[in-house]
Every structure is written in C-alpha cells, then in structure tokens.
Amino acid sequence: MKIGVKCEIHSCTIALAEVFLKEHITKDEIELLNKSMKARIDVQYYTNRNVSDSLYNEMIEKAPRFIATCKEIINKLTEKEIQEIRNKI
Questions:
Q1: Residues 12-59: pLDDT tens digits?
Q2: How much is the pTM?
Q3: Which residues, 6 or more positions from 34, have their beta carbon under 8 angstroms from its beta carbon?
Q4: Which in 14, 49, 55, 86 has the greatest CB count within 10 A?
C-alpha cells in the first residue's frame, strides 16, 4: 500500500497495475494475473471447474519472480511517481 491506495477487488488491483505501473509490469505478467485470478475463482466457487496443468505449472514457475518484481517496484517507486499516481486516481 505504498502508493496509498488499498485495493480489495483483485480485478481493480490488476487494472491499476496495468494503467499506472506499465513501465514496471509487462503485458504478459498482467495476462498471467488475469488468468490466475480466473483460475482462483473457478476452483473456489465452482466444483466442476479445473485449472489446466499447463496454467498451474506456469503459475508455480512464474510466481516467485513476479513477487520479486513487485517488491522491486515498491522499493524503486519515488515520491514523485507516487504523487503522480495519486493525482491521476
């Protein structure tokens, strides 16, 4: 919450990242976030839906690097960048 925006709706968090952090997060990472969110919803709320092995393996493989990227973004954001994001919101 370094930017000062608390996002509790995951799709809004992803949209915020896509718009305001596009210099830091790739389109592929945004796509994986969206697919991962859909997979979580499918397995949490629907008993007849499964996550494909390929998506499951992709999430397992890429999650550690994505978490590291997020931490790196948090550490590198300047006060000026944070203020610019807040003003745009």
A1: 989 999 999 989 999 999 999 999 999 999 999 998 999 999 999 999
A2: 0.82
A3: 14
A4: 14
